[in-house]
Amino acid sequence: KLFFTDYGNAAKVERCDMDGMNRTWIVDSKIEQPTALALDLINKYVYWLDIYLESVEVVDYQGRRRQTITKGRQIRHLCGLAVFENYLYTINSDSLSILQMNRYNGTDVQALARLDNAKEIRVYQKRTQAAVRSHACEVDPAGMPGGCSHICLLSSSYKARTCRCRTGFILGSDGRSCK
To answer: Which residue has the higher pLDDT, 52 or 126?
Structure first.
């Protein structure tokens, strides 16, 4: 799945398959300007910052069990969001520091380091990486990902795929080759 935020005409947090199909709103009320998103891949939670409502909130992948982690004026200065173990990590653009906070109640806020131009943060740790299994976009004997001549996108599961073409090309009737 792909998770993303939008704060155009109607602010929301959404999810869809990697090929863009099955687009679903998971948060579409009491949300104004969601600017950062982080996933808890193990427990299947979505965290986001709303800088207009000055809040950090969380829901499960279906948009249920919504909770506010923390609220306050300090939120408007945050950008980027990552989750690891019991903490959320974010960047305070005002003080240029990396912040750590308890992901269950927003307490235990600590500045960990100072960075000059950071706008985004990611946690890379072996436990946060999903196990790789065989999937529909693996390279075939002809060297094409998922049998697609240009781009292979996973679809509704790791067993399904959709072929797409680079800009300027159209997908052939076989659903795999680009012309």
So the answer is: 52
E strands within 9-158?
12-16, 24-27, 34-40, 45-50, 55-60, 67-71, 78-84, 87-92, 97-102, 110-114, 151-154
pTM, two decimals, is 0.84
pLDDT, residue 128, reads: 66
| Alpha-helical regions (H) of the chain | none
Mean pLDDT of 152-168: 93
Which has the closest alpha carbon to 41: 104, 130, 153, 156?
Answer: 130
Domain hosting 166: range is 132-178
Residue 144 belongs to a domain with what CATH number? 2.10.25.10
